[in-house]
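Hi team,

Filling in the usual template for the complex we talked about on Friday. All components are listed, including any nucleic acid strands or ligand strings, so the model treats them as one assembly.

SUBMITTER: L.P.
PURPOSE: interface mapping
COMPONENTS: two
RESIDUES: 597
SEQUENCES:
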Amino acid sequence: MSDRGHEASTAVGRFADVLLADDLPSLPADRRADTVALIERRIERLPSVTRFGVRIISFGVDAVARVAGADRARRLATGVELPLLAEYPRLVRSLGYAHVWETWPDSAVDGAPA
Amino acid sequence: MSVHHDCDVLVVGSGAGGATTAAVLAEAGHDVLIVEEGPWVEQGSVTPFSLDQMDRQYRAGGVTVALGLPSIAYTEGRCAGGGTEVNSGLYRRPPESTLDAWRRRYRILDFSTDAILDICEEVEADLTVQTVPGEHTAASDILRRGAAALDWQHEEIPRWMAYPEGAGAADGQRQSMTRTYLPRAVRAGARLVCDLRLDRLERSGRRITGARLTDLAADGPGDVTVSCRTAVVCGGAIQTPAILQRSGFRHRIGSTLAVHPTVKLAARFGDRAPGDVNTPDDVSVFQVKEFAPDLSFGGSASHPGLVALALTDNWRDMGEAVTRWPDVAIYYAAITSEGRGRVRAIPGVRDPLVTYRLTGRDRSLLGQGLGRLALTMLEAGADEVYPSFRGAPIVRDRRDLAHMNTAFSAMSASVMTVHLCSTAPMGDDERRCATDSHGLVHGSDNLYVNDAALLPEAPGVNPQASVMAVSIRNARRWCDRNS
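RESULT (copied from the run log):
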């Protein structure tokens, strides 16, 4: 688990937390927690079939994270260009980045507050 | 608690199809009940194109996708007024050649081009369709300037907006369905109930007898039933076929989804254009039509959050641009696709499975579109262009553009669409169509479709005018037959 206010409650949340910590290393922990919570909520609202698919992928990535470490799992998920699997980090990033810059539009590229 | 409603005509959905249907029927004296799955959200209470709006007025928070290679993200309005509450408000009549082709290919009866365009004229008066007063926003002018430099055909697309005296280009008041046709329907006696999700229609043989719904605002179980003599489904091109399939109707339903796939880019103009480029709550009203109907270019909403989203595919190289978001605007290239998709209701699962297959020609056209759009940006004076696909280079000049064209692959692009139609095509050619020429579902005596699902093909332009004209035509015809 990366340095943050509370532990993500889902596999998607844990992945989002690690991904954002790497992509936006200066995003404050409370902002990252807020963003991860939003991503978790949004994933729960996905249409049934898409949500099922995302959960399957997230469980797989989560399992790799438990065995090989969260950072390796992140690198694997973001580096593999397989159809559908590649959409998973793209979805998480899209939701996360949109939230960060809509909520704190003056953030630096690494997530640091203005 | 169980609730029961009784009506002559049940209208499912309150968007461009449902609101017009309800207004025409109620004004003709019919007893109309409109059920809408989403909430009533007062205009002005939510920031346009924001995540908050997506939460409150879009299905699934705006995150819906047609699976495929590549998958295509799409959005559906889910609120009183449907998509008209959340779209860009641009208005285009259906091209005459398109209407002619539909009439011929699908054997649509009583479908004269003149009659449809006459209805368009009424709609334009009702919605105060007009061009923007005064100067255009900088984002609009960029597209105009780029196209003009290339000597490419371009035009301002009118919008259904009302502009108060002295208002600027971004100060229009949307004349969406909650401001126009829904109040008309209610004034004529129609009842509108929001937060009601239709689970399935009840049928006895060929006749629909009512519907089972769920009250989403209720604390408890919230079971609702409706008895009706006629049902008109206007849930949009995804929900309408899903409702029909769940109710046992399958002939040609949900198997011909048509969309306008789009790819996008962000462009930064800070070093050359005067003032801020980004108008977060508005979109460009200019479109480039040089390559229409195959290709057209337009502007997207460009909130800082959406700018960040447009840069995610190559954040390492492009992310820095988000810190200059006031100088950045987002544009899209849309294609008229030859591919088709499917909408399939799955037993026991609430949401349908949506798939779409782009053809090789579609993929190639998306690449051409993105290349030409990037060229338009360079000609308009962009300092940097950021195409939205994995591995995309930053484009600063024509040499970079050539590199971009080589690197582009539709499989790595963020493809999306907001125009969905054709999942219950109308026409008297029963081999190709789900309904007759006026929306009556084949296999039923009193079940109609009256929304974007009826359009036999994607019209190649913003489809709202086409949807409204067809819906009004069909509703009037029903009134003539049931007076």
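MY TAKE: The interface with chain B takes residues 23, 38, 42, 45-50, 53, 81, 83-84, 86-87, 90-91, 93-95, 97-103, 105, 107-109 of chain A (CB under 8 Å). The mean pLDDT of chain A is 90.

Thanks, L.
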